[in-house]
């Protein structure tokens, strides 16, 4: 509480034994303008690591399903859908959830910049129509814990065999902008 007494009385007080002052207070005591200015200076350290641009604007990281691999059963009634998710941002991210065709995957996978991960995002009946239009990838930036969601539009290929007709997801297109959630 030495810094508080200095603020109130104007007298120099040193921290008591074992007391550690916050960095913003230490900066202020050393002659910097204010604790607010010190915290602003600390937040600019995010520049260069992909979290903020040079002008201080938040950079939205981009994570994308680059390609999908559908695996059909012999009769075409069952589908497993695998997705290749890539981190295009400069920051490391954690893939926290993928929502597709009413199923939710929670991979908890960390991706460094430029890294790709393959995950099964759906296992179930082959879609009989193309009514499902969106697949969501939720992720967080490891460095600051900020969450985002990358929505993808599902593109289908129509197939027909002796067991009936069905739609196979063949592509997922990223819908920009990525949402800050």
Query: What is the typical, i.e. mean, pLDDT?
Result: 80
3D shape: elongated
Unreliable segments of 5+ consecutive residues: 32-45
Span between N and C termini?
A: 38 Å
Strand content: over 45%
What does this structure look like?
- The chain has 181 residues and is mostly beta strands.
- The protein contains three helices and nine strands, in the order H-H-H-E-E-E-E-E-E-E-E-E.
- The strands form two sheets. Strands 3, 4, 5, 7, 8 and 9 form a six-stranded antiparallel β-sheet that branches.
- Helix 2 (23-29) packs across helix 3.
- The model is unreliable at 32-45 (pLDDT under 50).
List keywords for this structure.
46% strand; 181 residues; six-stranded antiparallel sheet; three-stranded antiparallel sheet; 9 strands; single chain; mainly beta
